[in-house]
Amino acid sequence: MEPMPHILVIDDDREIRDLLARFLEKHRLRVTAARDGREARRAWANGHFHLVVLDLMLPGEGGLDLARWMRSQSDVPIVMLTAMGEETDRIIGLELGADDYVAKPFNPRELLARIRAVLRRAGDPQDGRGPGGGSGREPGLRTLRFSGWTLEPARRRLLNPEGVEVALTGGEYDLLTALADRANRVLTRDMLLDLLRGRQAGPFDRAIDVAISRLRRKLEDDGRHAQLIKTVRGGGYVLAATVERA
For the purposes of burial, counting CB atoms within 10 Å of the CB of 10, is it exposed (0-12), middle (13-18) or buried (19 or more)? Predict the structure, then answer.
């Protein structure tokens, strides 16, 4: 039997920690809970986690600082818990590389669905197998090459023109793949969100814009004069490149 995905839940509210631990374990997820940054760092040092559920409003070391530290250590997926209406913190968290967010108060089933979606996208880079027990690789998908860059679906990685791997979060990889699969076609924010998360964008949802900005930096594609990922005024985004499949 394959091991269950290991989730690190970081929240200072004991009721929420206990609720999530019971609920997620009921749905075949292993859970380690921490109440603050100190406990989270201790748990991090002692275990391998497939995903982190992180409350941004933590006592002591804040959730954004903890997310920044985690992202410097690993590309483990992060799902943020944010207070309703905390748009600024949500955007900053996404800029730091979080893969998704859920606003409090939340339905545990919605959080479970987001966790499963992120786990499916991310896979487990440690052993090449998906956290849910299946293969994290995508056999049968062809390598995508554009403007000297290479996307390798089998390993879920991006190589620069010199053949050096460029680190991407699971969400960034999937966004770039969605654009490359539909090269030279304008994709609206709603279309991209639907492709990646299966939901529509809210009127102030900047998640896609933030992720595009991060991708441009990693692709060395100057945002003001972007040549690869272009902004279409009033439309969305387009990967303006010829994509070869091998």
Answer: buried
Q: How far apart are alpha carbons 46 and 94 in whole angstroms? A: 26
pLDDT of 47-101, one tens digit each? 889 999 999 889 898 888 999 898 888 878 899 898 766 666 667 777 677 778 8
Closest to 71 in 3D by CA, of 158, 169, 159, 157: 169
The Cα–Cα gap between 175 and 197 comes to 10
- Interacting residues of 213 by C-beta distance below 8 A, sequence separation 6+: 95, 223
Comparing CA positions, the residue from 162, 160, 181, 175 lying closest to residue 241 is 181
| pTM, entire model | 0.59
Given a contact cutoff of 8 angstroms between Cβ atoms, the answer to whether 24 and 7 are in contact is yes
Both tokens of 104, joined, read 């409090």
Enumerate residue ranges in the chain where pLDDT < 50. Answer: 1, 124-140, 199-204
3-state helix/strand/coil string of 201-222: CCCCCCHHHHHHHHHHHHCCCC
